[in-house]
Predict the structure.
Amino acid sequence: MYYEGIIIAIGTFLIIGLFHPIVIKTEYYFGTRPWWIFLILGIAAIAAALFVADVMLSALLGVLGASLLWSIGELFEQKQRVEKGWFPKREKKEK
């Protein structure tokens, strides 16, 4: 039996599912400032996928890279969702 496709599907599901709370928490604690971290890591993951011979690992790196790049847009959309009141806004602590 060939199980690589199922593993890639499960890995894709987990990677995408993991980035949902990461985007929410990043926007909550840091705003949109760390968007460039997602950019650098996304490009690095996609570049790494080009040099990995194993199809399963290469595919998962590609999915990871695409998810990181997609998260940039989601980070800015999350900011709009917070402004609309759909998600809580972090209150600045008074000193």
Remarks:
- Helices lie at 4-30, 35-51, 55-83.
- The mean pLDDT is 92.
